[in-house]
Every structure is written in C-alpha cells, then in structure tokens.
Design goal:
Helix content is 18%, strand content 27%. The chain is α/β, with parallel strands linked by helices and 438 residues long. Helix 3 packs parallel to helix 4 and helix 5 runs antiparallel to helix 6. The radius of gyration is 22 Å and the shape is globular. The protein starts with a strand and ends in a 43-residue tail after the last helix.
Length: 438
Amino acid sequence: MAMSFSPLFSFAQANVITTSYKFDFGSGKTQRGYVKITPGTTYTSQRGYGFDFGSSVTAKDYPGDDALRDDYITGTQPFYFSVKVHEGNYNVKVILGDKNGESVTTIKAENRRLMVERLHTASGKFATVKFTVHIRDSLITGTDNKVRLKPREREYKHWDDKLTLEFSNTSARVCAVEITPAVDAITLFLAGNSTVVDQADEPWAAWGQMIPAFFQPEKIAIANHAESGESLKAFKNERRLEKIWSMVKPGDYLFIEFTHNDQKPGSNHLDAFTTYKSTLKEWIEECRRRKVRPVLVTSMHRRNFDSTGHVVNTLGDYPQAMRETASEEHVPLIDLNAASKTLFEAWGPEKSMKGFVHYPAHSFPGQDSALRDNTHFSSYGAYELARCVVEGIKKVKLPLVKFLKKDLSPFDPAHPDPFEKWNLPASVSTNTIKPDGN
C-alpha cells in the first residue's frame, strides 16, 4: 500500500525508498520539508522510521523562530533511530546542540560502527556532522542466492533493511537528521574474521568497526562484510565473497585479512605457502577483472608473551605467505602483523589486557565468571588497531590517503594512546559468549 509522510518522503511501494529523508527532532515547531520526530515516534515497519530497540528518550523545546534548533531529543542511555532503506551507501547529516546548554555526542551506526567521536558543543552553539554509512541485506542481486548467515547473525543490525543510528555520551542533543544516497562514494569493502567484523555486542570489538571514524564524509563508505570464525575458504563458501562481487563497482577497494582460522585443522584449513597463497591470488585476479583495487592486510598477533615481554608468534607462516603474495602480485600490503607486535610490546603483558577482552566476573549482566580472551579486542584495543591500519594506508601511499580526515594526528604503535585518557561510550547490548574463532 502506498504511504507518505511528507512531500519529500513518499514510497511508491512499501520497499521503494525516496532520494532523501529529513527529520526534525523535538516537540516544538516543525521545519518546512521535514518530518517531525517526537519521543513517541517509535519504529514500525509500516511507518518506516522511528526510535528503535526499546529506546527511551525525552524532548526539550525552547521558544524561538529556528524550528530545527529550538528543540531536540535526548536520552540518559544510548538511543537508536532507524530508517527503512534499500542496500547501498548513504550520506547522513546530523545537527547537534542545545540552545541553552552544552552537548556531548558520540554516534555509531548499524552494529556499533564508530562514526562520530565525542563531539562537544558549547552552550548555545550547534554543530553539523556528516558521515557515510554502508547498508546491505543478505540477498545477492541478480540471483536467487542469499548469504548463508549463521544463527546469531540473523539479529545483527547490518543484515536488516534499516539504517540504524545510535546516539550516546554524556549529553547527546539531536536536533535533526538528514539521509541521502551517496551515489559518488568509493566503497572500501572489508573481508575478514572476528578481528575485523562489526561486533554486535559489548565488550567485543574489532578494527573494522572503528575505521569509519577516520575518513571524510561523502568520500568513502566502509562496507565491513567480515564475520567471526571465517577463513578464506568459508567466506567464499558462505557466499560472502559473492555478495561483495554483487555490490562492487570499478574503483572500489577490497581489504583482505584472514589467518586466525585458515591455520586451524579441519575442512576450512589452507596451507600457508600453497592453498592459502593460491586462494589470495584468485581473489586478487577477480578484483582486477572487476577493476577493484585489492589490498592485503596481515593479521595481528594474539596476546601471547614470552618471559622477556616479547610477543610470541602464534600465526605460523601465514603472515609471511601474505607478504610474499603481495610482492609476487604487486599489490599493496598493510603489515598489521608487524604493527601489532610493536603495539602489544609497547603495552606489555599487563597493560595489553586493556586492549583485549579481559574483565572480572560480574562486569556485565549475566557474567558469572571472568572473561579472559587473548584473541578478541575491547573497544580500546580495536581503536588502536584501526589507527595502525590508517598508518598502514599512509605508509603504502594508497590513493585513499586523500580521503582521510585532515586533522588526524600521526600514530606510532610504539607509543599508543593511554588507556586512562581514552573513552568511548559503551552500547546497550552485551553478550558474554566469545565470538567464533577464539
């Protein structure tokens, strides 16, 4: 059934989106051409937009003539706003601030992808932030196939038909949100395992969900198709690679990071210097055929130290096999393996626990025993590894460098950001079950 909620927001059919969405948050006057969003605007499939996942929000309205900035929506806990969209890349613009107070806002998208870090506005001041979000579903265009999702994935926000924004921090004040298709954005696809994936729940995190925050808006969309437990072989067999091929366009990038599961015995095992290398070369050749730019990323170490405080290699010959493949095929290589060794040894055995999922019992709901995971990362560890990847992009002089944010400070993994001075608000959802691939 056709539906409409303003002249700019009409659906020809239930699943056909318009070219743009404009939402005015708050209970005061509504800006012309915008849809009013009040605390009671909850998401339904029929409505196609609204507050989602049990969000509890309130509105503040001040007298004045600026309909967009005289009111806002806020919450004491992270809150979620979703819009029903087709897969693709979208530019998002958000107006933040408080006419009579300060605001501090962090924005994540989909499965906790970091988009905006701790944006502060002084009392009476406002800021407009922009970022680009990649949206996908499990259908493979032009075929009857779907990605073979694992049971836990079926509830992930990056496989539904919605663009979901998460607002948090000490005083998030959201005045307006605009969403438009990002038709000109280059897409940076990520293929990898649990060390790359957009982890759905606290306290787990991976570098792929942190790296969007380092790129300029409207230039690059990060399409993180990684999944926990994957090897090169499994990734292809589950049609995840086919899904990427169905979405890429000439000029896009494919970052490839696998090792942790390829080295394990079983049906998905690949030998480092034979089948692992040959599979990488097959993917590289397919990238070239499609005019997509492949980039190899060596896997970071696990948290394993010897008695002298040096990292013990638990990844065998696989990082070297990837280095050799990059050299033989003349493709860029980001040596995250080497950078992680420097990073972990800079932390040392004790401080490195802050970068991994090490938490005492009862740190999270339903957690009766301590979490001690030396493979998967906390948000802090994932962020530091994302900084290593950004430095790798610079080092190999990828054209992507020009799309990095201009105000990024240089990062030396030998001198990581102090944990005590780093902060990212936790999301609401938690899960104490370790991801696949531990």
